[in-house]
Design goal:
Layout (H helix, E strand, L loop, with lengths): L2 E20 L2 E21 L5 E6 L12 H13 L4 E6 L10 H17 L7 H7 L3 H6 L2 E6 L3 E5 L6 E6 L6 H8 L10 H10 L2 H5 L3 E2 L2 H7 L1 H11 L5 E4 L6 E5 L2 H10 L5 E6 L6 H4 L3
Parallel strand pairs: 1-8, 3-4
Antiparallel strand pairs: 1-2, 2-4, 2-5, 5-6, 7-10, 7-11, 9-10
Length: about 290
Amino acid sequence: MDRVRVKSPAKLNLTLEITGAEGGYHMLDSVVTTIDLFDIVTVKRRGDGRVTISMRGLGSENIPPEKNNAARAAELFSKKFGTCGADIFIDKNIPLGAGLGGSSADAAGVLNAMCSLYGVKNVAAEEIADMVGSDTRFMMRGGWARMRGRGNIVESFQSALKLNFFIIAPQSGVSAVECYKLYDELPDGRRANTQRALGALASGDYAGLCGSLYNALYAPARRLNPDAERALYEAFSFSPDGACMTGSGSAAFAVFENEQLCRWAKSRYRGSFYSFCAKTYIPRPLKEQTDG
């Protein structure tokens, strides 16, 4: 096998609390899920130690290779495990700078693909994941999880709930670094009930989960980019069962009881932002996603 292709999904933060700071990083507590929106990552084995990367879609062609987390992940993988290099090709479908985990999805996809390509256990590459992005460890696994610390403490779990989302993603993003920095000047003061969200997911309490949606970064995100506020306002305008911003923004999501209501909202949306419907996504075992 000299080539592996994987689907790497986007994510949504259903809750996001800031619980403190440590070592110059904000500590968080967040309930996350992957959704059925994917970047397609193809990794081809090289005969030398070089790493090349090519991306297309959503303006990703303009990302400098030296600032690309997917390329960095491959370089760190090759160094750690003494493997050959890789040619990486990414078809980009996850909006950039939206809080949907696009950069981490690409890095996670590369690490998963290289693990498969070179016969390395995925768990052995999670240390590299922590080095390239705070939620990359989770993105390597997907499904449902509680993320804590810098995002490097990932507790995966299962839930019978299957959620339907209408997502509104402004073309303008929010800098995660600036958002966390501004949070210190605009602390929310509210404590999200992440435990309540976890309990609702465990018991299948849809209404309880919708009532637990919360993001502590919303106040700084809307200050940095008014489009984040506009997106959440538009999401609420369809009277969903719940709505929230994801990550550090700028995308917002509305939760509906079924797919038909999601598609109704999409059909009625008259705003100028990119919008789409999605569902919770539980990945299959990696070997079922790859081809050689």
